Amino acid sequence: MSLKGVHIAFIAVSLLLCAGFGAWAITDWRETGVSVSFYMGVGSFVSGIVLAVYGVWFLKKLRGISSI
Fold it and tell me: Is residue 68 part of a domain?
């Protein structure tokens, strides 16, 4: 697998982890009412959005460079 492919896979796995952790943190906040869980959940979702935007930018930038 090329470096480009590894990078795309890493971004995808990181995005899934952000979404999963964010969902867990928001669920924990709803059950316990601890505000730190809410902020961690929101921060995780925001990080996921940033990762998604970066992933699209990365794919557009390297579109013409070798296949995955």
Answer: no
Domain count, the chain: 1
Helices 3-32, 35-61: crossing angle, 10 deg rounding: 160
User: The whole model's pTM is what?
Assistant: 0.84
| Containing structural domain, residue 54 | 3-61
pLDDT surpassing 80 at residue 66:
no
Query: Residues 48-52: contacts with CB within 8 Å, 24+ apart?
Result: 48/15, 48/18, 48/19, 48/22, 51/11, 51/14, 51/15, 51/18, 52/15
Contact between 26 and 18 under an 8 Å Cβ cutoff? The reply is no
Q: Which two tokens stand for residue 39?
A: 């902020």
Specify the pLDDT at position 45.
97
pLDDT tier for residue 3 given thresholds of 50, 70 and 90: confident
